[in-house]
Amino acid sequence: MFNLLLPLVMLAVLFMLFRSNKKRQDQAAQMRSAMEPGSGVRTIGGMYALVKAVNDETVELEIAPGVVTHYTKSAIAAVLDPQEYDAIINGRPAEDEPTDEPAAEEDADAKPLSLDKDVTEGAKDKGSAEGEAPAAK
């Protein structure tokens, strides 16, 4: 009985491995077929670009304004939603994502932060003129 069970378990494991690999390949092919000019993509190297043209086996990607490069379709890791691409490229959070930062409230009495080298009122030496360095002790 054990002699028959072990090969069946091994065959089941192989079947599951091949099945999951086939699913991943089908998903990748479906994702690559969804590419169209104007789509934002991420390459397997982590570079973000816009699709300019889709050919039989290659894709033309605009990596900077006016700079177009050619990549194989298999080099595309993900096709991004327009909002996600804009958030990544322009550094803006997506509108539907909540942010952890509280809303900035303007205080009418608050003084703006100054990065001048002038000594503040509380730290001035007595007797020193404004703009002069404090006397050494």
Describe this structure in words.
- The chain is α+β, with helices and mostly antiparallel strands and 137 residues long.
- The protein contains 2 helices and 5 strands, in the order αβββββα.
- Strand 3 and strand 4 form a beta hairpin.
Question: What are the defining features of this structure?
Answer:
single chain; 137 residues; alpha+beta; five-stranded antiparallel sheet; 5 strands; 30% helix; elongated
Strands across the major sheet, in which order? 4-3-2-1-5
Strand fraction equals 15-25%
Distance between the termini: 96 Å
Enumerate how many helices there are, as a single number. 2
Overall helicity = 25-40%
Total number of β-strand segments? 5
The helix/strand class is alpha+beta
* Overall radius of gyration: 30 Å
The profile of the biggest β sheet is: 5 strands, antiparallel
Low-confidence stretches: none
Coarse morphology: elongated
Overall pLDDT metric: 77
Task: Write a compact overview of the structure shown.
This protein has two helices and five strands, in the order αβββββα. It has helices spanning 2-33, 82-90, and strands spanning 40-43, 48-54, 58-64, 67-72, 76-80.
Topology readout:
Blueprint: H1 2-33, E1 40-43, E2 48-54, E3 58-64, E4 67-72, E5 76-80, H2 82-90
Antiparallel strand pairs: 1-2, 1-5, 2-3, 3-4
